[in-house]
Amino acid sequence: MTTITSKLPSVGTTIFTTMSALATELGAINLSQGFPDYECSPELIELVNQAMKDGHNQYAPMGGVMKLREQIARKTERLYGAKYDPVSEITVTAGGTQAIFTAICTVVNPNDEVIIFEPAFDCYAPAIKLMGGVVKSMELRPPDYRIDWGMVKKLVSNRTKLIIINSPHNPTATILHQEDIDQLTALVRGRDIYILSDEVYEHLIYDGATHHSMARYPELAQRSFVVASFGKLFHATGWKVGYCLAPAYLTAEFRKIHQYIVFSVNSAVQTGMANYLEDENVYLSLPSFFQQKRDHFVKGLSQTKFELLPSYGSYFQLAKYGHLSNESDVDFSLRMTREAGVACIPTSVFYTQGTDHRIIRFCFAKKQETLDNAVNRLIDFKL
């Protein structure tokens, strides 16, 4: 047989697949992978069903159903004061990950350098490497995981093509601040550097904080791909629908690649989503919905021996256990799944070098009953 040369030789099964499979095998409560265990809106399901009955079952336009793009433009202007042209600056994608992959493909050429901040979502680096790019990672450290912009400046070279930002951040649940925006703006000004802003948790931000979307800042928006996800917005991660906002000159190149990856996203779901978004409350109510879950979960976890880090955004909660055990976070997570019956994610997997701060990640996008049962098991967990 002919031997295949792997383009990603160091990539194997993701930790998300591993932990979810183990949770299923053992009947553990799965707080590892980021998806809800409650249903999405019955109204949304009915709208999608009706769209199918109305005949929206053939190819959608390559850029997305126009009514959905118009609703995205309306939402973006309401939230951030930014006007994006639905025709030339908004593209509906098969989830946020596809949008991220396509954006990286659009601007990264062989030997181009891309700056990422670790811990980082695991789809960034492989896409960069597939394009022949060079990953320049900067490690963020607990407890605050703030970006040291002085160090970022040292990473920038004449080969730097792209900086990937993620806020609210997975897995740390931190957010960007105005100081970060000011520093980023100064850093890229006068340089041919693009920004990929992963904002799939844009609506999951708490305590009245501001989401500093790149769309909010014209100087940054003109060089940015802004990626969002309807999976997070509508509690329907399995539908895999997202979108990318970018100025027309970037969108034109983005779509050249998008059309050969998926061409278009299923039309009935897009149509149903467009009609559902006519009610602005479906996204304006999300911060309070998830903040209630965060607060409830944190109150419960406070009865355990874990040391909790702040959760400013996303639907994740980090917990330190280093004062309780010397185990690696991977070993600790596996043991906790087996012995306590609660699955989590070790944060070392989000670092290229496997940096282990003895911190684990829980997902609280779950029913209150699920969270309560998980907390009770963790209280009883013998460390």
Would you mind describing this structure in some detail?
The chain is of the alpha/beta class and 383 residues long. It folds into two domains: 123 residues, Alpha-Beta Complex (Aspartate Aminotransferase, domain 1); 225 residues, Aspartate Aminotransferase, domain 2, CATH 3.40.640. Helices cover 40% and strands 15% of the residues. It is built from 15 helices and 13 strands. 46% of the residues are buried. The model has no long low-confidence stretch (mean pLDDT 96).
Helix percentage range: 25-40%
CATH topology of the largest domain: Aspartate Aminotransferase, domain 2
What's the order of the H and E elements?
HEHHEHEHEHEHEHEHEHHHHEEHEEEH
Q: Give start-end ranges of low-pLDDT stretches.
A: none
Numbering strands along the chain, what is their spatial order in the largest sheet?
2-8-7-6-5-3-4
Please tell me how large the radius of gyration is.
21 Å
Outline the biggest β-sheet: 7 strands, mixed
Our measurement of the CA-to-CA distance between the termini, rounded to an integer number of angstroms, reads: 50 Å
The H-level CATH homologous superfamily of the largest domain, spelled out, is Type I PLP-dependent aspartate aminotransferase-like (Major domain)
Tell me what the CATH architecture of the largest domain is: 3-Layer(aba) Sandwich
Number of strands: 13
Report mean pLDDT, rounded to a whole number.
96
Number of helical elements: 15
Indicate how many domains the architecture comprises: 2
**In percent, how much strand structure appears in the residues?**
5-15%
Helix and strand composition category:
alpha/beta
Please write the CATH class name of the largest domain. Answer: Alpha Beta
Backbone shape = globular
